[in-house]
Design a protein that fits this description.
Helix content: over 70%
Number of strands: 0
Order of helices and strands: HHH
Oligomer: single chain
């Protein structure tokens, strides 16, 4: 029974009566009213304790979630930095590959030029009647 509805649920006795029976009814009424109010306060305190416990649980959950979010943010930042570092390394590696290919092409071009020059000199020597295989000086060089 709610305290607010107390007046409607119990016949309200007359408190200014000289009749002992009426006074006993009024005292009983006050005891009942006190018991109902005490019960409501106790229920309210129990509800408050439950709510405080729930709030404490929610705060702990929030704290755990915040830590998880911080951990995830740290992981994301580490991954972003790893990606940036990897891109820089890939870019440097690409430049090295391009440089290596250019140097290799330059070397191949130089080797082709040297081969052509050897063949030209060999042709000149053979046209002049000199056989490099028989000439000890030309075999050494």
């Amino acid at each position: 029974m709610e305290v607010d509805n107390l007046e409607h649920s119990i016949d309200y006795p007359v408190k200014n009566s000289n009749n002992p029976e009426e006074l006993h009814k009024y005292i009983d009424f006050l005891h009942t009213e006190y018991d109902l109010e005490h019960q409501a306060v106790m229920e309210s305190e129990d509800e408050n304790k439950i709510l405080r416990d729930e709030i404490a649980d929610l705060r702990e959950t929030l704290k755990i979630k915040e830590q998880e979010l911080y951990r995830r943010a740290k992981i994301e930042e580490d991954l972003r930095q790893t990606i940036v570092d990897s891109k820089a390394k890939c870019s440097a590696l690409s430049r090295l590959i391009i440089k290596y290919k250019k140097e290799r092409n330059d070397e191949n071009a130089l080797n082709a030029k040297l081969t052509n020059e050897r063949e030209r000199w060999l042709t000149l020597l053979l046209d002049a009647g000199i056989n490099p295989a028989e000439n000890s000086f030309l075999r050494q060089n």
